[in-house]
Amino acid sequence: MTTKNNATIADVARHAGVSTATVSRLLNGIGPVSDQTERRVRRAILDLKYTPKRKRRSQGTLAGPGGKGGGLLPPIAFVRTGVFPGQNQSPVTEHLVEALHRTANALGRTLTVHHIPDLESCQVHQVIGDAKGVLLRSSIARGVTREAFAWLKGIPAVQVLGENRNQRLWLDHVTPDNTQAGILAAEHLIGLGCEELVFASPTQTQGVGMERCIAFVRTASDAGKTVRVLLQAKKGASRNYEQELEGLSANCKVLETRMDLLREIAGIRGRPFGLFIPTDLELAMIMPQLQMLDLRMGKDAHAIGCDHEIRCFTGLDPLPATMDLHLENIALRSVRRLLYRMEHPTEPLVRISVAPSVITSGEVLSQQDSLEFDYGDAISRDDV
Fold first, then answer.
1. Which CATH number belongs to the domain containing residue 12 in this structure?
2. CA 333, 55, 14, 318: dihedral to nearest 10 degrees?
3. Which of 32, 179, 323, 355 is most exposed by smallest CB count within 10 Å?
4. What is the pTM of this model?
């Protein structure tokens, strides 16, 4: 039974039926929480006799990985910058925050979570308080790390998620291998017997999405397959995409509306074809719409998404494949790298890429309720 001595923020979240990130926002007063959600969380705190980590640690000595022991370890902060979809939230970011909370707690640290749309709108210490290190996540594809480097004013920091492409490292960077994601998507669809492969995105494609697209196109082309790139974007965006895909064997078409994109996909005659949508959220929205246009998923087309957001797939039939970015591993490596950077500020910067893995449609259902991670084993490693 969970008691006052061992209740965690994750226990409170489960008891209240909310995410760990929601509990953190409430406890730290850093984001909007509905009255109903707040009542549920407050009730869970009372039921479990939960005491926030900072208060518990101040009652005695604490030692742990990355810490010196002998007192309260300074907190670390997770800062999101830019504008994220869905009220400044995205499924990947939400799950990343949960994983960062679990990792920080396991490593003996308190994690505070913050969001600022614009780095110029405030001073760093106004945001992070007494935190001594920062994990940074941005919705902006390019230029953010240089701006953040100046904004941080020497505070140790690690960039989490983002592009792998050859850009100058301003901060340590831990991210999924987006090129490998594109390669795996193409190989999966080719393995299903698809002769024509399609990369399609109903949102503006840049940064991470373009990395996945380029690797997908290159892999499919090298295998002798016909490749299409279908993108929804504002009028006039064609030239930018043509430059990105220059030298690759792909028929690229930019469409102005979602319906134009759907009709283009549904009108493909070479069947079955392979369809790669770069995020699970987009795939979950587009699949039912394609089926309404008489495209039989699993027969006329095989689909794969990315991000392992299989909660988005509820109600889809057939279930598509996806790719696990291994956010728990990314969170662990990010926090460990930050703690290392806090103690070794002059060491060379590094980029750590975590390889994704394919989750086939047959595996999706069985994995929906079994996303476990062994912190005891992982924390003992020294792969900082």
1. 1.10.260.40
2. -20
3. 32
4. 0.75
